[in-house]
Amino acid sequence: FWERDRKGGYNSTRVHMSRKQMILDGLKELKTEIALWQEEVREKFESDPIMVYRPGEVDVKFQFHEPKDLEKWVCTTDSDHGLGYSKANFEISPAGFGLFHGTLSDRVPIDGKIKRAGYANINSMRARKSFKRDSYHDWHPYNMLVMRIRGDGRSYLINIATEGYFDVLWNDVYHFALYTRGGPYWQYVRIPFSKFFLGSKGRVQDKQCPISLEHVTSVGFTVDSRHDSIGPFSLEIDYIGCEFDPTHTERFAYEMYKQDKYIVGT
């Protein structure tokens, strides 16, 4: 019940710098952090929060139209950690949208450590404030995740991380499937947050609970090579947003069969 590392052991390739190099790199970041702090102060004095969430209106949280929009996203594959041979990239497409594409390979390294391989993933960086302070995306007024995408017919996995303070909560991620049609046409995806189920380190948890929308730390997409789906893949994304739908009243879609102890007959 104790987690040694927030990255689950994937920090082994991290370069350890000297204290002097850390100070020099920190000074280079100072200008950017001060500018971010000034923006936070400006927003505080303006104090212009959204007071009314109008039904049917999508508030865009991430859009992918310029290279700078991709700077807060990280693309990884099994080959980055020596666990396979898949390749992927996240870049601006010729049409001017975010393009997550690459090639999946289920070839396993001959090292005797793993049995299966073949995945690629993109993930937004942790929400933070100035001077490297951790923060959260507050999405609690919304109940719908809305996206405009163009896929290749594959099934992808949407990941919404809600990393907690304690170590046992570091890997809490909510998942739901993203089914793409393929072809040249765009599709609008609208998924209730109540449909997302809890997982940790890739395993669905026995005890489920609704997603904590005021503590969202990152959003991501995963594709893997299950069911002989190796080869090239492509997912083009215009934007990711949230919407409030007053007609959707479901809080959580999944029934827990293990009742609380104070319920009679359990």
TrEMBL record:
Q: Which residues form a coiled coil?
A: none
Q: Which family does it belong to?
A: Belongs to the CIA30 family.
Occurrences of domain NADH:ubiquinone oxidoreductase intermediate-associated protein (ranges): 62-237
- One family name in Pfam for this protein: CIA30
PANTHER family linked: COMPLEX I INTERMEDIATE-ASSOCIATED PROTEIN 30 (PTHR13194), COMPLEX I INTERMEDIATE-ASSOCIATED PROTEIN 30, MITOCHONDRIAL (PTHR13194:SF18)
* Location, primary (coarse class): mitochondrion
Source species: Phlebotomus kandelakii
Entry superkingdom = Eukaryota
* GO CC, alphabetical: mitochondrion
Q: Where in the cell is it found?
A: Mitochondrion
Q: Name one GO molecular function term.
A: unfolded protein binding
The protein depicted here goes by the name Putative chaperone protein
Query: Quick one: a GO biological-process term for this protein?
Result: mitochondrial electron transport, NADH to ubiquinone
Keywords of the record, alphabetical order, are: Chaperone, Mitochondrion
